Structures are given as C-alpha cells and as structure tokens.
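Data deposition worksheet. Section B asks for the primary sequence of the deposited chain exactly as it was used as input, without tags or linkers unless they were present during the calculation. Section C holds the resulting structure in token form. Section D is free text for depositor observations; keep each observation to a single sentence. Incomplete worksheets are returned to the depositor.
Section A, Depositor: J.P.
Section B:
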Amino acid sequence: MKKFLIGILAAVVLIFQSSMTFATPKVEIPEEVYKWIQSTPRGNYWFNYQVCGYRINDDGTLDLNILEVPTIVTYDNIQIEDVIQKRRWRGKSTRGYNNLIGRADYLEFNFANGTVQIVRRADLDHTFTELDHYEVGEPVKLSEIAEKDVSCKFYREILKWVQANNDWIIQRSRGKLNEHDAKIKPSEMPIFKVKLPGK
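Section C:
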C-alpha cells in the first residue's frame, strides 16, 4: 500500500510538472514599440517598428540597401527549459536563466544581395535585460527560405510592413537621403524591388 501511495504521489508530481511546462510565461510586450507578426507552439514573434530603419553611412546619408530590424521572440516554458538544458550540457552559466523569457535577434536585410542575416542574438530576462549574447548567422538568400520555415512569414511580413511605411521610416530617420536617392520615385527604392521570401 505504501508503494502504491508513493507511485500515486509521483504521478501527481509528474502531471503537475507537465502542466507547468506547457504554460506560457506572462510577458507584456509594449505594442507602441513592437508589432506582433506570428505565434508558433514554442514562441511569439515581434519586431521593433519604432527602431527598425536604414543603416546610416559615415556621411550621414541613408543606405537604402541595408535595413536593420531588432526583433523579439518570447518563449513558452518548454522552449525556456530547452535553452537552459542546452546551456548546462555545454557547460555554460545558467545564472539568471530562471527569468529567461525569450531572445532578441538583430536582423540585417541586404536588398542589393537579396539576403537576410541574424547579426546578433541575445537571451533576455523578464526585464528585457540581456543574459548572454552571441554573434550568429551567415547571410541567407531570401529566395531560398522555404515557405514552411518559421522565419519565412516573419521576414515577409516585416518587409511588407516596411514597404507600406517606407516614407515614415525615412522621415523619422536620423539620416538623410543622398542626392541620387532623393530624386528617385518611391517605387524605385530597393525595398520595392526585393523579392519577398515565399513568393
């Protein structure tokens, strides 16, 4: 009887842990800064539309071929535990990872080359403070991203939003258009010539 009760107790504990694992941490993302794009079983994908913009050259002009976009992916508890376990396996510190909520990816779209690159990735805690960061990723051709790839819709929707708000992005930028770009029609700018992924 004692073994039976211990077995029942163990089962209850496992069920409780399992239910906790499938829960999604409550994270408030400021929608006046970030735009939600999509959700998957493991995460929610947002990009910072207030900060995304064209790279500024040394002379203060905008490089319309390079779009820089900060993004956030918030995790569910399964993904959080997976990240923590992988860090343990690799002998990395897990200090502060009890407050892990997701990651920030810093994207760079290169319209001249038709590529996107994650130039930097950072794990974030519940205060959006970096726990650790990595230099990751080689440029990937937008045309080669499979439609079923989670990043395909994410990148496509970011670029569609930028196309719809390109004038606003340029006007609020700290840089200015060079003489050539100031004279071309909006439809001739690189953002409108790039082939969107999955299309």
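Section D:
The chain is about 30% helix and 30% strand.
The two ends are 64 Å apart (CA to CA).
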